[in-house]
Amino acid sequence: MINKIVSTPAEAVSTVKDGSVVMISGFGEAGSPIELIHALIDHGARDLTVISNNTGSGHVGLAALIENRQVAKMICSFPRTANSRVFPELYKNGEIELELVPQGTLAERIRAGGAGIPAFYTPASVDTPLGEGKEERVFDGQKYVMEYALSADYALVKCQTADRYGNLLYNKTARNFGPVMCTAAETSIVQSRNIVQAGDIDPETVVTPGIFVDSVVEVADPADESKLVAEDRRYPW
């Protein structure tokens, strides 16, 4: 019988190794798998390359993982936001690497990784510093830059509802990068606000099919990242 449910976030991330490439869902504070990230902090894996939309907020979640010096490189679109307090200082001091990617290009690089497409062309970074040194081609008189797909060893994703097969539903904009990250990772680890019985999810509404998910852990009352950031809480709390 297929059953991808695990008991705790700690168990879910226990196989993550030093040097792994880890995709982490979230757009700002929406869809960020806070409990999985903090389980990864406790787990202690280091020298990670993290692919995410941004670098976290305040001193919790992804920002806490970075602050704990477990991330060697970030691949993201927004390394500095209004509440990004950790990454800018480490980057300025040369303590972390950054690969900056336009947001649409980031999403498409991840989608391509999941679809088995090794590279594609986009006009997004033509004649900008982000396009320097990259292959260019002209199609119908328009210049395009070649970008390589992104894949990962692990994806840490947050969803609203899951079943034991790993079928997932998301909560509105908290869906963001979760579905494409699940397809592009060798191992997808998901925290879900609730886990329902097999058959309770209408197959026509499934966003991420269970074939792309390896483990699911229920976190019924996930941390409110915006509240923790506002309170300037630090890990551990």
Automatic annotation (TrEMBL):
GO terms for molecular function: CoA-transferase activity. It holds the Pfam family CoA_trans. The keyword Transferase applies. Keywords: Transferase. PANTHER family: ACETATE COA-TRANSFERASE SUBUNIT ALPHA, KETOACID-COENZYME A TRANSFERASE. This is 3-oxoacid CoA-transferase subunit A. The lineage of its organism: Bacteria, Pseudomonadati, Balneolota, Balneolia, Balneolales.
